[in-house]
Amino acid sequence: MVGKKLVFAREGAPPGVAESQREFGPMEKKHERHPLIGSMKGTFTIEPGWDLTKPALDAEELVEMDANLERTADLIADGLSGKSR
After folding, report:
1. Calpha distance 83→75 (Å, rounded)
2. What is the per-residue pLDDT across 48-69, written as a single tens digit (0 to 9) for each?
């Protein structure tokens, strides 16, 4: 079909038959808020006078946590290398 033009033409409907309406149209945009926004409202409260800027752990707790982490890392390293203390 080199050099020829291909044309698609719609054939007319038989008399008395009309084309059906489109079943699906474009979705309507909803301007509602997402259901998760505000879904946890009221699930917890912050006591009056509570300082949200203070650290969660004091210095002693932080040192103890660091030491525990080091001990755990040493035990894991010893276990991987096959050494025992």
Report:
1. 10
2. 999 989 888 889 999 999 999 9
Angle, CA 84 vertex, CA 83 and CA 85 arms, to 5°: 125
How do the pLDDT tens digits run along the chain, 85 residues long? 688 888 887 776 666 666 665 566 667 777 788 888 888 888 988 899 999 898 888 899 999 999 999 999 999 988 887 766 5
Compute and round to an integer the Cα radius of gyration of the chain: 36
Query: How far apart are alpha carbons 55 and 62 in whole angstroms?
Result: 10
Sign of CA dihedral 58, 63, 66, 67: negative
Decide if 78 contacts 85 (C-beta within 8 A): yes
Question: Does the pTM exceed 0.70?
Answer: no
Helix extents (H) in 1-85: 59-81
